[in-house]
Write a structure and sequence with these properties.
There is one protein chain. This protein is α/β, with parallel strands linked by helices. About 25% of the residues lie in helices and about 25% in strands. It has 10 helices and 27 strands. The chain has helices spanning about 1-20, 75-80, 130-140, 155-165, 170-180, 205-220, 240-250, 280-305, 340-355, 385-395; strands at about 25-30, 45, 70, 70-75, 85-90, 115, 120-125, 145-150, 190-195, 230, 255-265, 315-320, 365, 375-380, 380-385, 400-405, 405-410, 410-415, 420, 425-430, 435-440, 450-455, 460-465, 485-490, 490-495, 500-505, 505-514. It has an 8-stranded parallel sheet with strand order 12-11-10-9-8-5-2-13. It has a 6-stranded antiparallel sheet with strand order 16-20-21-27-23-24, with helices on one face. Strands 17-1-22-26-25 form a 5-stranded mixed sheet, with no helix packed on it. Helix 6 (about 205-220) packs across helix 7 (about 240-250) and helix 7 packs parallel to helix 8 (about 280-305). Bound molecules: alpha-L-arabinofuranose. Alpha-L-arabinofuranose binds near residues 93, 366 and 372.
């Protein structure tokens, strides 16, 4: 009798254990414990004078047969407006530290030309300058994020640019702006004091740049009501010494510290193809994308020592996948295709930013149109939306919402004797009380069953959208622009505080719960 009882207990334990094993992935969301806001500025973009990033991709000029508003493409603006872009970083990148803003104002046919030494050695005619950029931001409804020239520009030049843009009164620069057709000052919040000053922005050592920052920043004045949010040129990926030095020497004289990290599957000489890659290269890419989490946590730990109140933000203002250029294109133009792999890369990165929104308050994917991991590609009058575009479309619901803390116990996607999380997630509650959960299955072969507990949520309905495709290398072309595009996702069950669903292999899902 005793043995029989023991046997039944063992059987029940086995069934229970087995039942748990079937629900491999468990996400627990504390729906009432949100404390931090996911700043909308995490969803920022970046456009540099590089290849067709500006010229052709955004700016076609007023006389172009391509429909435009004051020279700016209508189709591109319309598509970008749907993403609710919060801020746009410009004019570089490396270009910023060679840019002389006074060349880009006044009558276009009288603007001096320059050589774009970084990007293809082409002649830059300066037809897209400060006024055109501000017009673009107004058309997009986003805030400008201007990056100033520390590497080869003077303190005077930088200070005059700020006066030109923001001073509301009588002054040489404000009068010049009025003469050039803009009587009112613009509102500029985000201002970068240099870019990659450890490299193309002057090849400086951390101590030297810290001193340069302090000097330049003094003359970045707040005119009238305008308040600058000053962003220091931050570290290259895992250069923790750079962060330590700047935190120690600059401290609260900066509002944010930038961070640049690109996902390069192979190496800088042969980065790997954007479309022609195998599963091993896919795994390496997503593993490297997850490295953003370690970077944010380690840089944050250093920042916490000097700034425990988290007043200074970490700003990953250049990130994304960087591959070999498309065959036959100018190597200096950084024009690459964009596949489902890029959508997954973007989703896991944005989840990391959402989860660390107490420190990460502004971020910019590189770059918006026709350069690196773009959301839009153009070919003369044609335009297509990339898989990455759809991730920004899915994730825009997190902008300015309250981040909901979550824990993920998930399966591992294994390859090459290594493994990464098979499931990535982030969640938020918006101002109307709706909960949004983003879920990604990084495994290209196996679907994942997810049981998601929504602790404290009074949920009644759930709806969703999914992005997936047949292959991880699938992408949109000008002939087939919808190969990777979103679909409604209905395969999700809500029972009380529990959601259950199956994430198909290599997919990104956004759920809305009311
Ligand atoms: O985004 C392309 C380049 O990458 C930028 O100009 C530079 O800042 C970085 O090295």
């Amino acid at each position: 009798m005793k043995n029989k009882f023991l046997f039944i207990v063992l059987i029940l334990l086995f069934i229970g254990w087995n039942g748990k094993a079937q629900t491999q992935n468990k996400v627990v969301i504390n729906a009432n414990e949100g404390k931090y806001t996911i700043s909308r500025h995490i969803y920022g973009h970046f456009s540099e004078h590089l290849g067709y990033g500006i010229y052709g991709g955004i700016w076609v000029g007023e006389d172009s047969p391509i429909p435009n508003t004051r020279g700016i493409r209508k189709d591109v603006v319309e598509a970008l407006k749907a993403l609710q872009i919060p801020n746009l970083r410009w004019p570089g990148g490396c270009f910023a530290d060679e840019y002389h803003w006074q060349d880009g104002i006044g009558p276009r046919d009288q603007r001096p030309k320059m050589i774009n030494t970084h990007w293809g050695g082409l002649v830059e005619d300066n037809s897209f300058g400060t006024h055109e950029f501000m017009d673009l931001c107004e058309q997009l409804g986003c805030e400008p994020y201007i990056c100033g020239n520390v590497g080869s520009g003077t303190v005077e030049e930088m200070s005059k640019w700020i006066e030109y843009m923001t001073f509301d009164g009588e002054s040489p620069m404000a009068n010049l702006r009025k003469q050039n057709g803009h009587p009112e000052p613009w509102k500029i919040t985000f201002f970068g004091v240099g870019n990659e000053n450890w490299g193309c922005g002057g090849d400086m050592l951390a101590e030297y740049y810290a001193d340069m920052y302090r000097r330049y920043a003094v003359y970045c004045r707040n005119y009238g009501q305008n308040r600058l949010y000053k962003i220091a040129g931050g570290p290259n990926a895992s250069d923790y010494n750079w962060t330590e030095t700047l935190m120690k020497k600059i401290g609260n004289k900066m509002n944010a510290l930038s961070l640049h990290y690109y996902t390069v599957p192979k190496n800088w000489n042969d980065k790997g193809s954007a479309t022609d890659f195998d599963e091993t290269e896919y795994f390496i890419t997503i593993d490297k994308a997850f490295f953003m989490r370690e970077l944010i946590e380690k840089h944050t730990a250093i920042m916490d020592k000097y700034d425990p109140a988290k007043r200074i933000a970490l700003a990953p203002d250049e990130w994304g996948g960087w591959y070999n250029v498309e065959p036959g294109t100018n190597p200096g133009f950084l024009y690459q295709q964009n596949t489902l792999r890029d959508a997954i890369l973007a989703a896991v990165t944005l989840d990391v930013f959402n989860q660390h929104c107490d420190r990460v308050k502004i971020a910019n994917i590189a770059q918006m149109v026709n350069v690196l991991q773009s959301v839009i590609l153009t070919d003369k009058e044609k335009m297509l939306l990339t898989p990455t575009y759809w991730i920004y479309d899915f994730y825009k619901v997190h902008q300015d919402a309250t981040m909901l803390p979550l824990s993920v116990a998930c399966a591992r996607y294994e390859s090459q004797g290594k493994s990464i999380d098979a499931v990535s997630a982030s969640a938020s509650r918006d101002k109307n009380g709706k909960i949004h959960i983003s879920l990604t299955n990084t495994d290209p072969n196996k679907s994942q069953t997810v049981s998601c507990e929504l602790l404290g949520a009074k949920a009644k309905t759930v709806s969703g959208r999914i992005l997936t495709a047949n292959k991880i290398s699938d992408h949109n072309t000008f002939d087939n622009p919808k190969t990777v595009s979103p679909k409604d996702f209905k395969d999700v069950k809500l029972t009380g505080e529990n959601l259950s669903l199956t994430l198909p292999a290599k997919s990104v899902i956004i759920l809305e719960i009311q």
